[in-house]
Amino acid sequence: AKPFNRGGYAAVKQNGLWGFVDTENRWVIEPKYEDAMSFGEQLGAVLVDGKWGFISSADRMVIEPQFEAVKHLNGSTAPVKQDGLWYMLIIEQ
């Protein structure tokens, strides 16, 4: 499991796949991702087919998987790596 981040859901690995639990340890998004990072604000980072993207708390892909690496969301920003370079992704909600 990965720690909770800013009151969102925590990423948890089960049977080799990652999903998300709430603070009561209930599954809110069943494990189906290659890797995941706990939610920050309203989004969680997930690894799909070797690329990182971002999902909503309703498990809807809101930023398609396209990044080589990501770091945890901090408010409405997240460091993302694309084509070998790091950028600061600003998420407008």
Low-confidence stretches: none
The count of β-strands is 10
Question: What is the helix tally?
Answer: 0
Strand content: over 45%
Largest sheet: 4 strands, antiparallel
Q: What's the helical proportion of residues?
A: under 10%
* Helix/strand/pairing category: mainly beta
Q: Mean pLDDT, as a whole number? A: 92
Strand order of the largest sheet: 4-5-6-7
Amino-to-carboxy terminus distance: 27 Å
- N-to-C series of helices and strands: EEEEEEEEEE
What gross morphology would you assign? globular
Oligomer: single chain
Radius of gyration from the alpha-carbon trace, in angstroms = 12 Å
Describe the structure.
The protein is an all-beta fold and 93 residues long. The chain has no helices and 10 strands. The chain is 0% helix and 60% strand. Strands 4-5-6-7 form a 4-stranded antiparallel β-sheet, with no helix packed on it. The protein has a 3-stranded antiparallel β-sheet with strand order 1-2-3, with no helix packed on it. The protein has strands at 10-14, 17-21, 27-33, 35-40, 43-48, 51-56, 61-67, 69-70, 77-82, 85-90. The model has no long low-confidence stretch (mean pLDDT 92).
Keywords:
93 residues; mainly beta
What is the gist of this entry?
By secondary structure, the chain is mainly beta. The protein is built from no helices and ten strands.
Topology:
Blueprint: E1 10-14, E2 17-21, E3 27-33, E4 35-40, E5 43-48, E6 51-56, E7 61-67, E8 69-70, E9 77-82, E10 85-90
